[in-house]
Specification:
Low-confidence stretches: 13-22, 169-175
Number of helices: 14
Membrane topology: Single-pass membrane protein
Structural class: alpha+beta
Catalytic activity: a peptidoglycan chain = a peptidoglycan chain with N-acetyl-1,6-anhydromuramyl-[peptide] at the reducing end + a peptidoglycan chain with N-acetylglucosamine at the non-reducing end
EC number: 4.2.2.29
GO molecular function: lytic endotransglycosylase activity
Radius of gyration: 60 Å
Strand content: 5-15%
Function: Functions as a peptidoglycan terminase that cleaves nascent peptidoglycan strands endolytically to terminate their elongation.
Mean pLDDT: 78
Number of strands: 10
Shape: elongated
Largest sheet: 2 strands, antiparallel
Length: about 475
């Protein structure tokens, strides 16, 4: 028979103190205590109270542990157990602690500013990349390695093309500076009956020599005083006495030279080089000395084409002098021209050279002259391609388009007025046409394949002539 179980002994635990305690605050806890016969082997775990803290955006207030000690400890109350139950110790419930967020105002602080809610977006610092060339740890790409040489090569190529175009368009002078020396020149004539003394004095006056007596002594000592030759001479001040004596006493070996109209100074120079074996540039220097001696603005256009007999030893100087004197004689025939009231002799010679370059037919020259004067009167570009050909020194090949479109002193398609100099040696017929042009209303003309000329009054008629004859 089983042993009757003992009823558990009920114990009542009074947790109230005899001393009346101060009423506890709401911040308390309740505990359930169960007492058993068996002793609890485990030691009760001490209750650790978490320290409360108040946090704001500006400061954090913490409650010190000293104040907590000042509060009287409230003993838990024991609830009497019912019959057959256990004694329950109840402690007041703890107040629910609310945690204040940073956005909520602190009731213990006076708010001096408006609390703004935090933005949800996180502000990231702006990354500033290092300058090019200062980066470390980067490997230069192949494209970057070849970019600078490629750009340099491209620029060099562009500069080369630009230089070629500009040099091709640059004015090509017929008188190359490398072949011409800019020096004082003197032109004079020894007339029949002049003695060695008068020649010496003349050369001293002209500045060829500094001492006429010294030159006369040289003539006498070398038996040259009685054999000085008459004629026109072109000298410069750098000549020595032997050179002067040789020039004035050389036995003439005459040669006949024919200079057709439309020959330029360079063409005449090449002609003397091939015909007489002169050094290149000899005639160019003679023409330059002639212009200097007579104070001419230019030499091209002042030399009249024709046939001349000159001394072979000094053919360059004699030819330049002979052509210039022939031009002066031709001008004397046309001093009654009404064009001299508007234009100078130099301008009329420029027109004569353009007429000569445009045609070799004397019957066409006066009508071409009328077209030139009509355009000059209306201040229109002359549009004579011969001036551009003279500038390019190319009388055979087609004129490049860029040369016709570039404004230069000799491009009469783009420039209004006359070029700065003549462009060739005119013939007597061209000089006559320049001083006495025909009276026509034409402003345009062209040559067909058979060298026949066709005139037009308007540009529309000129375009019809182009369609029909070219």
């Amino acid at each position: 028979m089983a042993e009757k179980q003992k009823e558990p002994t009920q114990l009542s635990l009074d947790l109230e103190e005899t001393k009346t305690a101060a009423p506890s605050k709401a911040n308390t806890s309740s505990y359930k205590v169960v007492l058993k016969d068996e002793p609890d082997t485990k030691a009760p775990r001490p209750v650790v109270r978490k320290k409360t803290s108040v946090t704001t955006r500006s400061m954090t207030v913490k409650i010190s542990s000293s104040k907590k000690a000042e509060e009287p400890a409230q003993k838990p109350k024991a609830t009497p157990a019912k019959q057959g139950g256990t004694a329950v110790v109840r402690r007041p419930k703890a107040a629910v602690q609310t945690i204040r967020t940073a956005e909520q105002p602190n009731p213990h602080l006076v708010q001096t500013h408006v609390i703004r809610p935090k933005s949800n977006t996180v502000a990231r610092p702006k990354v500033q990349p290092p300058p090019i060339g200062k980066r470390k740890g980067y490997r230069t790409s192949k494209a970057a390695m070849f970019l600078i040489p490629l750009l340099a090569a491209t620029l060099l190529f562009c500069f080369a093309i630009l230089w070629w175009v500009l040099s091709d368009q640059q004015e090509q002078r017929v008188e190359p500076s490398s072949l011409i020396e800019d020096r004082p020149a003197i032109a004079f004539t020894i007339e029949r009956g002049m003695t060695a003394r008068s020649v010496s004095l003349l050369l001293e006056q002209l500045g060829v020599v500094e001492d006429a007596q010294a030159l006369l002594s040289y003539f006498v000592e070398n038996n040259l005083a009685t054999i000085l030759k008459t004629g026109s001479y072109l000298m410069h001040s750098a000549l020595s006495f032997p050179e002067i004596g040789t020039m004035l006493t050389a036995e003439p070996q005459m040669v006949q030279l024919t200079i057709p109209g439309a020959f330029t100074l360079k063409t005449i120079d090449d002609y003397l080089v091939n015909r007489l074996g002169f050094a290149e540039g000899t005639f160019l220097q003679s023409a330059h000395d002639l212009a200097t001696a007579y104070g001419l603005g230019f030499a091209e256009g002042w030399l009249l084409g024709g046939t001349y007999t000159v001394n072979r030893q000094r053919a360059a100087n004699d030819l330049a002098l002979a052509m210039y004197e022939a031009m002066l004689n031709e001008i004397q025939k046309h001093l009654s021209s009404p064009q001299l009231e508007v234009y100078s002799i130099q301008e009329l010679l420029i027109i004569a050279s353009m007429i000569q370059a445009e045609t070799q037919e004397a019957g066409q020259m006066q009508e071409i002259s009328s077209v030139i004067f009509n355009r000059l009167k209306n201040e229109e570009p002359l549009g004579i391609d011969a001036t551009t050909r003279y500038e390019l020194d190319d009388w055979v090949n087609p004129i490049p388009t860029h040369a016709l479109e570039t404004k230069t002193p000799y491009n009469t398609r783009r420039k209004v007025g006359l070029p700065p100099s003549g462009i060739c040696s005119p013939s007597p017929e061209a000089v006559h046409a320049a001083f006495f042009p025909a009276d026509t209303p034409y402003f345009y003309y062209l040559h067909d394949e058979n060298k026949q000329i066709h005139f037009a009054l308007t540009y529309e008629q000129h375009k019809e002539n182009i369609k029909q004859y070219r």
